[in-house]
Amino acid sequence: MAGMVAVAKRGVAAALACACLAGAVQAEGKVPLTENAHIRDSLVAGRVADVLRTECGSLHARMLLVLQKLDDLKEYAIAEGYTEEEVKAFLKNKEQKNAMKALAAEYLAKAGAVAGDEDSYCRVGEDEIAKNTLAGSLLWSW
């Protein structure tokens, strides 16, 4: 069980690292990955889910689904013409990671999450789950 928890924590870390997939990569004839709405929205949703599960003790990540979605997103980027090297470089871009965090924070605030108020994060998380949003699909509660 401890091994699964370690894997889960690494998976969430990987999901957060994907929040870096927002960067300055601009290959010839391709737009930056951040300008791809599917990629941007997926990364923001992943960040939203991670913040919700971190701030609300009754919310937990669906780690196998998180890992699957991460792999799907990487495959999508590659199918869009980006190389694995470009995706990896993209993942390391701190400026873009911060931009994704800011978009997620804005989304959470609009949804009613209030810093320091665990109940507000739990309510937002339960709403995301009920609405079956991408962020909600990455969570479960008890």
What does this structure look like?
The protein is mostly helical. The chain has one domain (2-24, 31-141). Helices cover 68% and strands 4% of the residues. It has seven helices and two strands; from the N terminus they run ααβαααααβ. The chain has helices at 2-18, 37-55, 63-79, 84-91, 94-111, 118-131, 134-137, and strands at 59-61, 139-141. It has a two-stranded antiparallel sheet with strand order 1-2. α1 (2-18) crosses α2 (37-55) and α2 crosses α5 (94-111). The longest helix has 19 residues, at 37-55. The protein is globular, with a radius of gyration of 15 Å. The protein starts with a helix and ends with a strand.
Morphology: globular
Give me the number of helical elements. Answer: 7
Low-confidence stretches: 1-11, 13-27
Helix content: 55-70%
Taken in chain order, the helices and strands follow as HHEHHHHHE
Write down how many β-strands occur, each being a DSSP E stretch of 2 or more residues. 2
Largest sheet strand order: 1-2
Q: What separation lies between the terminal Cα atoms?
A: 19 Å
Q: How many structural domains are formed by the residues?
A: 1
- Overall pLDDT level: 83
Main pleated sheet: 2 strands, antiparallel
**How large a portion of the residues is in β-strands, by DSSP E?**
under 5%
Structural class by SSE content: mainly alpha
- Assembly type of the shown chains? single chain
Roughly how many Å is the radius of gyration? 15 Å
